[in-house]
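Researcher: Here's my situation. A collaborator sent me these components and asked whether they could plausibly form a single complex. I don't have experimental data yet, so a predicted model of the whole assembly would be a useful starting point for our discussion.
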Amino acid sequence: MNQEHLLIKALKGEPLERPPVWMMRQAGRYLPEYILLRNKYDFFTRVQTPELACEITLQPVDLIGVDAAILFSDILVIPQAMGLEVQMVENKGPFLPKTISSQKDIDALIVEGAAASLDYVSKAIALTKKELNSRVPLIGFAGAPFTILCYMVEGKGSKAFDKAKQFCFSQPELAHQLLNKITDVTIAYLHEQVNSGADVIQVFDSWSGLLGPEEFKQFSMPYLNKISDSLSARVPVILFPKGSWYAMEELSNSSASAIGLDWCVKPEFARQQTQNKKTLQGNFDPCKLLLPIPQIEQEVKTMIDAFGTNRYIANLGHGILPNIPVEHAKAFVNAVKNYRAL
Ligand code: CP3
C-alpha cells in the first residue's frame, strides 16, 4: 500500500489510467458540514484554529472522495502577517480598511518575522497530515504576489482592480518594491508549509488575467518564477495564473511542475503551447456543475478525452460555487475516478 499517490505521479509525468481529481475551494459553502462550522465560528477563527482548519480540510476528502486535500486557509493571511488588517465581510468578501498607496505605506510593512507569525498554519498542516494518515496528499498554497498586491492596494474585491493596476502602471518602482516584499514573505511562508508536511504547493494568481501579456511579464511572471524556483527543489509546484492564457509558453519554461487552466483555454492549445513539458490542471467550468448529472458525466469524459490521462490533473477552472448541490460535486469526482484510458 506504500504506493505513490496519483497526484504526485501526475505531477511527475508518470503514465496513468485515469487522472487524479480535486476541486479548487473544495472545502467551502456548498458542504452542509462546512456551514455548521461557519454558523458557529467567524472566518478567521476557522482559519486560525488548527483543529477547525484541519476538520474543514478533511471534509471534502471524507464526503466527496477527492484525491487530494487542500489546506483550509486563505491567501489574505499574508497581508495580515505583513501588518494590514483584513476583515471578511458577510456577503461582500474581503475588506482591508488601510490600503497601500505610498512609499511610507510600503516601508511600514512587516517582512522579517512575518511568516513566523503564521505558525497556526504550520500547526494546522501537521495536524491534518496526522489525520490524513497518508490517504491523500496535502496541498499547501499562497496567493501570487500580483494578486496579493491587488487586495493590498484596492482594499477589497473588484471586477477590474483598476486602482491596483493604476498603481502598477503609474508607479512601477513602488509596485516592484511591494511585489518583492510580498514575494519574500510568501517564500518563507511556503517553506514553512513544506517543513510542516505540505506535499505540493499551489500558487493562486486569481487576477493575473486582468493584465495584458507585457504587463504580466513585468508584474506577475518574475515573482511566480522566484517562488517556483525556491520551492520546486523540495516539492512539486502548481502555478495558476487565471486568465493568462497568453503566457502558456513562458510558463512552460518555468521550474513549476504544473499549470492550472481556466475554462477559456482549449486543452489542445495548452498542450501545444507547453509542448507536453508540464502537467496541466483544470479546467471544468464550475457553472457546469449545475447541469443534470448525466450531462456532467458526459462533459467530464469529453474533458479527459481532450487532455489525455497523462500529465493531467482533473479540476475545475476556478473555485466551486456555493450553490452547487453536493451530489453534483460527487458526480464530477466520480466521473473522473471511473474514467479509464483504453
Ligand atoms: O480551496 C480550498 O478549499 C482551500 C481554501 C481556500 C479558501 N480561499 C477558503 C475560503 C483557498 C485556496 C482560498 C484562496 C483564495 N482566497 C483566493 C484564490 C482562489 C480564487 O478563488 O481565486 C482568493 C482570491 C481568496 C480571497 C477570498 N477569500 C475571497 C475573494 C473571499 C470571499 C469570496 C468568497 O468566495 O466567499 C474569501 C473567503 C473564503 N476563503 C471562503 C472560503 C471557503 C468563503 C468564506 C465563507 O464565507 O465561509
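Model: Some features of this prediction you could bring to your collaborator: The radius of gyration is 19 Å. The CA atoms of residues 100 and 153 lie 5 Å apart.
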